[in-house]
Amino acid sequence: MKPNMLCKICPRKCGVNREVEKGFCRSGENPIVNLAMPHYGEEPCISGSRGSGTIFFSNCNLACVYCQNHTISQEGRGKVISIEELAQMMLELQDKHVHNVNLVTPTHFTLQIRDAILFAREQGLRIPIVWNSNAYELPETLELMDGLIDIYMPDLRYTSADAAGRFSRASDYPQYARKAILEMYRQVGHLAVDDDDIARKGLLIRLLVLPEDIGGIGDGLRWIADALGSQTHISLMSQYYPVYRANEFPPLDRSLLQDEYEKVLEILSETGLGNGYVQELRPSREWTPSFR
Length: 292
Hints:
Blueprint: E1 32-39, H1 44-47, E2 52-57, H2 70-73, E3 79-80, H3 83-95, E4 101-104, H4 110-122, E5 129-132, H5 139-142, E6 151-152, H6 161-168, H7 173-188, E7 192-193, E8 199-208, H8 217-228, E9 233-237, H9 258-271, E10 275-278
Parallel strand pairs: 2-4, 4-5, 5-6, 6-8, 8-9, 9-10
Antiparallel strand pairs: 1-2, 1-3, 7-8
Helix pairs in contact: 3-4, 8-9
């Protein structure tokens, strides 16, 4: 982040000078990373046979009470590194022959990541870059990444402002997420894969179904079909299980029920969205990496 720049890179627009103070995301001017490794638990077109080179950033601009990565997103566990060190992480992952570099929860470090990608490319980074975000982003900030990000993989977490406010402290999430996803699509278009079904460029939208569909994922699927077309790739996830503070917020204090997931699958079928992935109903902590 440039000296004396007041941070307004996400919808929070905290306006703090991150050299000397911290805003909602509790982050300073340098990136904070918990883990960088080949990861095999992403969607098949992302993980493939050689894994996705995931870099897990610490902290977050949301405050989800059920976050499965809460040890890093909310508790901030991680190591402060330089932009040059971040670029080196990308290059080291490429040396491990992963299919891509996968930036997990990157939004609050957008400017630093941009500089790191540019530096890494000068040093020989050639594999695709995945932007794996919560979609609580500003289109004008995403414009800074145009031409640098090959694959956008955002969540569409809520269409309900009430749920977004109660469970993630972001009642304006639905409006910003939709604008952000439209900007992502403008940059990269629909998902394209190579002869081995590995993603090379495009948009893949993730939707985590919550108990009683309190996030309004059914409405999210309808919006995707209407705004982006039925050829849009989606990943409908049933892996929710209660963790972190979820026990304080019924019905988040239990896992997803079969009939709840089936209702969303029916809506998916009605929309005509036929590209992408659905999960079997098998909530498990095995989906979550073991963070340091």
